[in-house]
Amino acid sequence: MSGQSGFDHVADVVVVGSGAGAMAAAIRAHDLGAKTLILEKSDLYGGSSAMSGGALWIPNNHLMRAAGIDDSREDALTYLKAITRGEVPEQRLQAYVDKAPEMLEYMTSNTRLEMIVMPEYPDYYPRVAGSRPGGRTVEPVRFDARLLGDEFKRLRPPAYQELILGRIAMTATEARDMLARRPGWVTLSMKIFARYWFDIGGRLQGKRDRSLTLGNALVGRLRLSLMDRRIPLWLSTPVRDLIVE
Question: What is the fold, at CATH topology level, of the domain defined by 13-234?
Answer without folding.
Answer: FAD/NAD(P)-binding domain (3.50.50)
